[in-house]
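Appendix B. One record, verbatim.
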Amino acid sequence: MVTFHVLTVSVQNLITRHSIENPEVERQIIVWEDALEYVAEGFNVIFSTCWYLDLLWDVRKWPSYYLCDPFENPNNPPLLPMQQKKVLGGEACMWSEFQYDDTILQKIWPVASAVSERLWSPSFVNNVETFSPRVEEMRCRLIERGVPAAVLNGPGSCPSSGVLSTFVHPADAGISPQDVANKVPDKLYLPLKSPWSAFSENKSVSANNLSTWSCLFYYVLGMLTGVVITCFLASCIKSNMMGSLGFSRSKVGLNRTGWLLLFVFLLGCLVLNRMFG
């Protein structure tokens, strides 16, 4: 059974009645409107008036969330230092009645990062131009971890930084509680592709696991295999074709062209390893 309660009194009357009926309970009230008025009356509040993420219909207006100062009181005198202590903190709110599972995270991130920096920074730290690179960096970090954060400043591309993309729960990844307690965050990630990191992660899992010596071994093995196959087929190949491939027909060896081809092959392997290794 679901019971619906209809509020028939004003917020002011509700707060007053709550204080009278529960004098032993510390008054920490979360309100949407007129929060600073209650601060002036001695109430502790958590500020959220200008940080409703669902009201950001035009993403280009996100700087207003960063510039919102919970201590500013435009319609009344500025808060006194003792009154500022009544602002316990702030929160970014997200009402999801017009959102879906595929869109809600893009609505929250990375705008919520702007609210976070506003809350832990002094009031004079309010330059949007210097903050923009930081919020873009945060957005790329979120994308590399599989969180579909929205684009704020465009064009929105993220260069590959080699950060592993998919978060794995410690119980599924074989991570011991001691590893988590020792704060080893890298072990909580596996190099798996996520649907949102296709443009930010181009590294191969197999290449990442190969050491330098393993790569050298496979390079030499491939070269020797090519030499053996070519020498085995030497009787079926004309002399001029053997020469163009860089091999001497009279003996198993490399002429000038052969050494050049070998150098180009090894150089190509090195370049590919640098690009995808």
